Amino acid sequence: xxxxxPLLKILACPLDKGPLHLLASDEALSEEEAxxxxxxxxxxxxxxxxxxxxxxxxxxxxxxxxxxxxxRMVP
Length: 75
Hints:
The protein is built from two helices and five strands; from the N terminus they run H-E-E-E-E-E-H. It has 75 residues and is of the alpha+beta class.
């Protein structure tokens, strides 16, 4: 997903309806591109360019992983 994609401006977390942030892929850690809600510490995968935004698709992340994901957020 492109950081300039207008879709990113309208996508929202299915739980709190707040904005989501694009996480860049990190090949060194084998991390795929994802959308992240830092307020709830939830990460939603992007599969074949399609965000998976069902509440059950999101995964809760631990506090230490949360700090790492904040560094990967695309401005």
